[in-house]
Model the fold of this input.
Amino acid sequence: MFKLNTNRTFKQPVNLTIVDENGKDQKGSFTANFKILPHSEAIDLPDDIRLLDRVLVSVEGIEVPGEDGQPLTGDELLYALKNDPSASVALANAYQRSIIKKNLPRN
Done:
């Protein structure tokens, strides 16, 4: 019998492209740990930012300096990533793409 754990989490690579101060594209990737959000909870979310508030558990492989120049950690790091337009779009796309891609029909 197949058992479905509805409280699961999963790691997913996130590809990110940002434009630096010189107008050049900078590409990188990091790993995000997401939790599955049931449809009953997702239906009332108005945008991707709120989605990230509910599904983003942790990240690894990315550094965001704080105002003091030291790398942010924990909730401060997650907030900085969710607050950055490029990072938040990349995170939301990684979450949604992983759910869809893993459940497409297989030939």
